[in-house]
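Box 3.1. Reading complex inputs
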Amino acid sequence: MFRRYANSIPEGANQLFLLHPLELTALLEATWRSRVHHPKSRLGNPDHRSNVSSLPDLSLDELKRIGIGPSTTPTPRMATHPAAAEDEPPALWDHLIYAYMIENTRIYEIFRRVLYEFLHGERLGVPTAPTQHWLRSTEELFFRDPPPLSLMMITSHVRPDLRATRRNAYWRMFGMDLNHGTDEGQPYPYSKPDAFNKEFVTAFEELLREAWVAISNRKNQVGPDPTDRGKITDLVVNLQNMLTTRRSYGNLSREEFAAVCTMSWFHLTVAFDSPVVKDLRAEASSPEERLFKIAQRVGLPAHGLSKSYFEIADLISHVLILVEAVGKDMVPDLVTKGDATNPLQTEINSIITHWSIITGRDMKAGKVVTT
Amino acid sequence: MAEPHGALDYAHIKCLLAVPTEKEGLAEDRKWRVPHPDERALQDLPLSQDEIEKLLERANSQSQTSQTVQRSPKAEKATERK
């Protein structure tokens, strides 16, 4: 979400980094309040993620007075939560898979070390004034308990470890753990419940393979067409059922929101030569190169395939939200014929490329069946 | 039977999840209102602009009243002599 609040890079982002942590928290609360909200849709679906309320207006009014909130420029109206102001456009946050992909770069752990070094000594130099703002907000928002009653408050005596809470959500939704454990190389301890989407990876990879067959045959007018529309429909419905089952009655929505917002803050930090990036002398031309340089400075390596994780995060988020929102209604777009790929096919194509790089399993190769 | 869904389709999802890049900012209708640090510093003043103007007006009127009261008959005569 923080990338969206920035509006522009670098001006908007630099401005965002100067805000008070309470103002940043208010932005998150305002986002939740103006979320897309169709009460008739099943609770937990993308257009009806949750019925949990944000902070009451009493607390937000003063912050709204100083100009915090979504744009008031007219936009195509969609139903938003009744608590949202009339002039607030609908807000939607990324799918949990976005947070999973970004966290896999190890960005959270690397910036944890950056904070440690800056807050304990001068090994990395003395942070400049803009970086001091960034440090304060980062520490306040993501490395301590959030303000009481805040939406971001997903830690308690029952689940004290924020990182374990995120891993638990990833496990339940995708049946996947992050690719790194503790800093000491040990498996990260967290609760792995019995109810999780064990078949997510298998079904998703099968969908990517079938989608690739459809995309690569989109110009095929004469020969036999191996596109299996029925199988694609079946896989999409299967994925939709899996994901929405985990979200029954709005379950995991707050955890998703908190995880996505956290990762988007760090993603924005390396999306350009931000003040902290400059202070760390990690200027570069891409997010992964900046992260690699920062990682080197703090002595904790980033994932070598960070480029693919950054590239795939937004795209796979769009597609999984679409799967949840419309299910099999997305299939016609997926298998459509023509010379050029449509926007959905283009995104799926990029996902296929980066997923293949990340997993080492080629989604463009036919499935090998052992007998 | 398929679950009825709301207004979210692929175009909407992409529009709502659009992010700025170094090359291109967000469209006007997707921008968030975020206070500018300088404007916020002004907002930190204990009084609003309206309140300041009211106070100034009141101060001016009090000042005029005060001047009227202070002009004693002796001073008036001195003015007349001039």
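In summary: The longest strand of chain B covers residues 32-33.
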